[in-house]
Amino acid sequence: MISFFIYLACVSYAVSSPTIKSLDDLKIVGGESIEITDAPYQVSLVRGGRHSCGGTIVAKDIIVTAAHCVLGALANEFQIRAGSSYSEKGGQLYPVGEILWHPSFDYGNMDSDIAILWLPKPLVFSDKIRPVQLMGRGEEINDGDDTIVTGWGNLYEIGGTPSTLQRVIVQKINNEICNDAYKPLYAITNYMLCAGAPGGGKDACQGDSGGPLVHNNKLAGVVSWGLGCARPEYPGVYSKVSALRSWLDDNIYQLRWKHIWRSV
Question: pTM of the predicted model, to two decimals?
Answer without folding.
Answer: 0.86
